[in-house]
Design a protein that fits this description.
287 residues; Rossmann fold; N-(1-d-carboxylethyl)-l-norvaline Dehydrogenase, domain 2; 2 domains; 3-stranded mixed beta sheet
Length: 287
């Protein structure tokens, strides 16, 4: 196996950050995106364009919006698939659909790891994110070098689909932490408390969560430049609620969170950073 050559399919925020990490680590990265112009800044930094990375690389990372998109793109690039390859899918996808995709690929001799990333693109760019991996253990071991370069910590969660399931659990708690912070800051403002002071008190108290470090300043400053899109987190929340419904589990806090995200999206913040959920608490937005 050529351990210093790797493919990357999907050059959104996360795919770009992962590619940057791999280039910095000295990998030869063959990149592909449905719109080629997104690849140009990475090609300028040393990446190589590939019409089909599957035809060139034994290990290929995938970072797309949904599992439906993953299946569509793999269908378009199907001619490059061959036995012995390993696909590492960092998409936050629907777990059961992910399992079915893994089964279909396994039947063709292709090993598939569902490996969603917990962390924003900026955290990934700084090497601070966490990968949650499901799939064959031998494939996981064969890709450990990639994970070690791309993220701060890698957690092997079990068979195919385990990474996707655990990522939904993580995103549920993470999103509620972000929504609680937004509501707390809005409440502080209502009480006439300076928001910078309020944030510092929260960070220093037992109410602290790491989301305060990354999203608190953005909420206080109204800086919604995108690290992770609000609409993408809403997509994940809908996946969470769908999975819970299948299992017969009510998630009342997450239902409220969904409505807040939908209000912010309807107000025009879908492509903004997910810290823009604070705008869902504006009276006009919520109405």
């Amino acid at each position: 196996m050529d351990t210093k050559t790797v493919g990357m399919i999907g050059l959104g925020l996360m795919g770009t950050a992962l590619t940057e990490r791999l280039l910095e680590a000295g990998y030869a990265v063959w990149v592909h995106n449905r719109t080629r112009d997104k690849a140009e800044p990475l090609v300028a930094r040393g990446a190589r364009w590939a019409d089909n990375p599957l035809a060139l690389c034994e290990r290929v990372l995938i970072s797309l919006y949904t599992t439906d998109t993953v299946e569509e793109v793999l269908g378009q690039l199907d001619g490059g698939l061959r036995p012995g390859q390993i696909l590492i899918d960092t998409t936050t996808g629907e777990p059961e659909q992910t399992v079915r995709l893994g089964d279909r690929l396994a039947a063709r001799g292709v090993q598939y790891l569902d490996a969603p990333i917990s962390g924003s693109s900026e955290q990934t760019r700084r090497g601070e994110a966490v990968a949650i991996v499901g799939g064959p253990q031998e494939a996981f071991a064969a890709c450990r070098d990639l994970f070690d370069y791309c993220v701060r910590q890698t957690i092997y969660a079990g068979p195919c689909g385990s990474g996707s399931r655990m990522k939904l659990v993580s995103n549920l708690v993470l999103g509620l932490n972000r929504a609680a912070l937004a509501e707390g800051l809005v409440f502080a403002r209502t009480l006439g408390i300076d928001l910078n002071s309020a944030l510092q008190v929260l960070i220093g108290s037992v109410a602290y969560s790491r989301i305060m470090d990354t999203k608190g300043p953005k909420m206080v400053e109204g800086d919604f430049r995108t690290q992770a899109r609000l609409s993408q987190h809403l997509k994940d929340i809908r996946l969470i609620l769908d999975a819970a419904a299948v299992a017969g589990q009510d998630l009342p806090l997450t239902e409220t969170h969904r409505r807040l995200l939908e209000a912010a999206e309807a107000a025009g913040f879908g492509d903004a950073d997910n810290s823009a959920i604070i705008r869902a608490f504006d009276r006009k937005t919520a109405e």
